[in-house]
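As a warm-up, study this chain.
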Amino acid sequence: MRADRGWKSILRIDTGLAAAALALAGGGAGHAADLSKIANIVVIYAENRSFDHLYGLFPGANGIANAKPEQSVQRDHDGSELPSLRVWNSKGEPEPGYPPLPNAPFRIDAPPVSKLATDVLLSPIHAYYHNIEQINGGKNDMFAAMSTVGGYTMGYFDGSGMKLWQWAKEYTLADNFFMGAFGGSYLNHQYLICACAPAYKDAPESMRAVLDDKGRLKKKPDSPSARDGAVKTYSGGIGGQVTPDGYTVNTTQPAYQPSGVPPAEGGPLEMADPKGNERIGLPLPPSAMKTIGDTLSAKSIGWVWYSGGWNEALKDGMRPPADKRKVIYTRADGAINFQPHHQPFNYYARFAPGTADRAAHLKDGADFLAAIEGGTLPQVSFYKPVGLLNQHPSYTDLMTGDAHIADILERLRKSPQWGNMLVIVTYDENGGFWDHVAPPSGPGWSDRWGPATRIPAIVVSPFAKRGHVDHTAYDTGSILKLITARFALEPLPGVREKAGDLTAALDLP
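Now compare it with the structure written out below.
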């Protein structure tokens, strides 16, 4: 039996359960949208762009034109207003091609900078403690001071040339969607599947953040004014992988291959060396925290995490340490540049090498394309494009990933399952780029993990409102809310009560 036909027979059973679960999940209390019409949910997770950075000029959206001076003027570490924006390179020197700029948002693709969206450009630091300090209680005025590239964080594109812009115009663009957790890709991928930060209570001191008496990153004595160079902290370039009380918040490698830590000499090739290395630290011990995968499997709901380059990276990661690995963290021309910390389920004991759950739920991007064409996508699909196609600054450009994701959307729209499908295209985090809107705060919204900076999100579906900008407040956990409501799952405890569930973007009875 084809997967879509088998699922349609199940759809008739739990309409009432789905509506009841929607009310319990929050963001939809009091309405009875018939979510049972949605047979397939697809989440496409791109990389490292804030909302204003790509969609700040989108008609009808809360864009850059709405930013008040106090939301855009950047300040030095002492609170004084910066006289100009300076852009720094990895050596802490002025980056060629970027003159001193006015202290305001600026177009990257217009004079005097005039870079192309097809260029591989700078990547600001995007780390947990840096992001908290950049947001500065909602003022958003410390992005330049707490960045490795200075004022480049204030740069944005005219995104109207993107193919995804056209999809956003045709369907629904959410302009009030926030990354679930402060910082970078590692923690926000974890938040997407568990609304949590994996614990590492036994992490060595060398992996823990060094904080001052105010809970901020401790600066080195020679850390300069933002007028003169990039900030220097004791916690290294990624800002400390583990909180002082033992939660992983910045890039930490998995214990299973593919991992940024090679196998140990003479050890099992499917495992990372438990001793780690000086640059990356120790791999995270396999986690047992509850994920959306657990709650889906508990209800026998079909789901898969599809990852571009998974099969190739897995083979490459299992090379003996003496062999040069060609895929993982390789930026040479032609390499797929697979990122192990973008694979959140690979951190969990349930999906250890050799398990049935790993084989059933962790699959290659080629399997995703085949399932789209064959009409055999599971009820819930997550798709992670490989590095060259995910729009991440510094190792790829904006437009290559834009074309790839737009092609995926077109394939989905032509698939046999399209009539009952809902697709969410969003980004893991802001990539260190400024946005003018303060994250939601207060009871039911904010906790120690976030929410953080605003990011783009597009809802594409036969059920999506057409030509619509949705101003409802969402975060990454809203995706979990929608999945939980649709399939009447046990809610994950970390999902925020006040975050919407994305049904405001839909036309459902």
